[in-house]
Amino acid sequence: MTNSSSNNNQEFQDPLENYDPKTYGGRLEQALAEELVGEIEHEPYATIPPSMSVFDAVHKMAFMHVACLLVEEDSKLVGVFSDRDVLTRVALEYEHCKDSPVAEYMTTDPVFVYSSQSAAAALSVMAVSGHRHVPVLDNQQNIVGIVSPQRVTEFLKRSL
Description:
Blueprint: H1 4-8, H2 27-34, E1 47-48, H3 54-64, E2 68-73, E3 76-82, H4 83-90, H5 94-97, E4 107-108, E5 113-114, H6 119-129, E6 134-137, E7 143-147, H7 149-159
Parallel strand pairs: 1-2, 5-6
Antiparallel strand pairs: 2-3, 3-4, 6-7
């Protein structure tokens, strides 16, 4: 139970009444803060199962002219297989590993961003993790795409 006499003595003060909206140094800074990862082009993207052979995965990358494949199992991201994986884990032993499943050579537990995060999150992940290709997931952990340096650059150019 509240004391009604004390409530009558004070007027309601809106906490947002004196709120100053965020000011930005320019359109680019504003876009990075306010626009979402989902607004960066993140399609098309290619997925493969972890059981796919290294040979087939490398062939798919070459045929599609992509540098990164998202490894998906039961509609969930389980890894990425990128040109970097090919160079560091496969190239020197290609004849030995070409028939092995990509799961043995992929990057497991990849860093990702949610489509609902700020666009700056994608740049931060790329800069901090050192990964050029970052998977994009929705809030239910489903794959919705991938961002790359080229796609981020296009987003930034549109934001100027």
